[in-house]
Design a protein that fits this description.
With 240 residues, the chain is α/β, with parallel strands linked by helices. Helix 7 links the parallel strand 5 and strand 6. It has an 8-stranded parallel sheet. It contains 10 helices and 8 strands. The structure holds pyridoxal-5'-phosphate.
Length: 240
């Protein structure tokens, strides 16, 4: 590598450093231990060369939205053992392709999808690690369980075999006001704690996946344990 090409992606390293500082600051402000918050690099539309820069900075978790995109990048990643989560809507007919390749499916948004994952995991004699996506703003255009039926749904899912629920994920509505977004994160945190206290079989509530580039600070202040950051690390996405 020439000197200039090794500097071309320095912004990625700098962005990661800045976000880690933000994590530490927000945790200090909230009286939390900074090790409670994990930083995921969201790598959709980002080429493997840039992802590998992030991995060389110690990023140990990436998120992709699409099954095909995740699978095609896997052989190019260094180290290949980096933890990978699927965070985009998953069609039931793609469960077979992603199971065993992603370490966690964060975007389980229906009973039908959960039951397909359970069936496929059972066939292979593995346990599928999942988060449940909550449509916290009850938006028509978004998928996810509504908060009011959530307890009933999580009980149904907990009875499915070969599935383990590790926590919750949400993408709140776009909010103009800081207080408004914090309100949604607060509701998620309440739901998370409520379910933790119920001690449901096959449910081990320890991951609260909240916060993206525009709102990860608010999410950490409200209790997020996993922030999913894309454009603040890699720059604006270029959808071709
Ligand atoms: C794209 C995406 C992100 C990251 O978004 P940024 O605003 O670029 O940080 C996080 N979570 C999900 C589910 C996404 O689809």
């Amino acid at each position: 590598m020439t000197k200039s090409s090794s500097n071309e992606f320095d912004y990625i390293s700098e962005n990661i450093k800045r976000i880690r500082e933000d994590i530490a600051l927000c945790c200090a402000k909230a009286g939390r231990d900074e090790n409670e918050v994990r930083l995921m690099a969201v790598t959709k539309t980002v080429e493997a060369e840039k992802i590998n820069i992030a991995l060389s900075e110690g990023i140990d978790l990436i998120g992709e939205n699409k099954v095909q995109e995740l699978l095609s990048k896997l052989p190019l990643l260094e180290p290949k053992t980096v933890e990978k989560h699927l965070i985009g809507h998953l069609q039931t007919n793609k469960v077979r392709q992603i199971l065993g390749r992603a370490d966690m499916i964060e975007s389980v948004d229906s009973i039908r999808l959960a039951s397909e994952i359970s069936l496929e995991a059972k066939k292979r004699n593995i346990t599928a690690d999942i988060l449940l996506e909550v449509n916290i703003g009850k938006e028509e255009a978004k998928s996810g369980f509504f908060p009011e039926d959530f307890i009933e749904n999580i009980h149904m899912i907990s009875e499915m075999s070969n599935i383990r629920v590790h926590g919750l994920m949400a993408i709140p509505p776009i909010c103009a006001e800081n207080d408004e977004i914090r309100g949604y994160f607060y509701k998620m945190r309440k739901l998370f704690i409520d379910i933790q206290s119920k001690k449901i079989d096959n449910v081990d509530m320890h991951v609260l996946s909240l916060g993206m580039s525009g709102d990860y600070k608010e999410a950490i202040l409200e209790g997020s344990t996993l922030i999913r950051v894309g454009s603040s690390i890699f720059g604006e996405r270029n959808y071709k």
